[in-house]
Amino acid sequence: MAKIKIFDTTLRDGEQSPGVNLNLSEKILIAEQLEKLNVDIIEAGFPAASKGDFMSVQKIAQTIKNSSVTGLARAVQSDIDAAWEALKDGANPRIHVFLATSPIHREYKLKMSKEQVVERAVSAVKYASQKFPIIQWSAEDACRTELPFLAEIIEEVIQAGANVINIPDTVGYINPYEYGKIFQYLKNNVPSINKVCLSTHCHDDLGMATANSLAAIENGATQVECTINGIGERAGNAALEEIAVALHIRNDHYKETTRINLKEISRTSSLVSELTGMVVPGNKAVVGRNAFAHESGIHQDGVLKEKTTYEIISPELVGYSSNNMVLGKHSGSHAFKSRLQELGLEIADNDVKELFVAFKELTDHKKEITDEDIIAIVLEKKLSK
Ligand code: KIV
Ligand code: ZN
Fold this sequence. Notes:
45% of the residues lie in helices and 12% in strands. It is an alpha/beta fold. Helix 6 crosses helix 7 (176-189) and helix 7 packs parallel to helix 8 (209-218).
């Protein structure tokens, strides 16, 4: 049984990336791919935010069977009601209620005292527990909250019925050492902490989201919140692919596993990049174009002698073919069809013919056709149906 649960928030925090706006069919394609990737939980959106968000969360909850689907809610009854209406038909519905706890948020944003924040959080969790079997509560800006107050409010929400407690680094401020210490503090100072699952949710403002998430795991977190390609608010969220692969490659150290189907990583990354328009930087860990490329003569020589000299991750592990066959205007339908198969795209013969025509047209404008181009051609066809 896998120990670390992967909570994917590509469709909620990821969709909060400036400039990203996915429509219903695009969200469903991503949710289906996340299910193939075997994520434990899909945060499908924020049902009270808009009619469109409500409808997409509802549709995803009705469609997805092998991952639990959740939705975000502020600590107010109308948000919790909207989340229930959207999620109630799901296979395994859960809610994610949040309220800020830090002095900065209490004073400037909420204009509430500590007591009022506790009271609001407790009554929201109690209300949610009348409807939902699983309730996650997040202390927004937890990492800038006074630790005794954080411990106090967490104990209160657990007593009120929360099953999962999330400690977000909302503004990407913490470092791995300090974050680990927060988890240790909570384990020692929240009497009911062992009754719940502890979750980590990190932003990448200082480039430490993955390292912080791993530090949380080392200190007792059993759920990680992350997004594909690390997309999300501002500098983004912890990248799912980095965490899942780090736990796999460095299992000697972390001794933890996930249920993630690593081979689906490349396909998921390309799909999310294509549909969100957020290009994956070439040097991005695990899924960047250069992640498995070797440029210097010394490195090339080493890799030709023995791959592991400079490669700690094999491209095949995360679903990239090591096949260097370049597709371009001279390629025939056979090579095209076999690349579709390598990419795991199951397509009927008739459709392959149509896609091949689109592929040939593209070769008039582009010298080398990449896997991302092929996925784009397939998506365009799927979405136009
Ligand atoms: O970053 C954050 O604090 C969030 C919460 C809603 C969990 O996204
Ligand atoms: Zn966030």
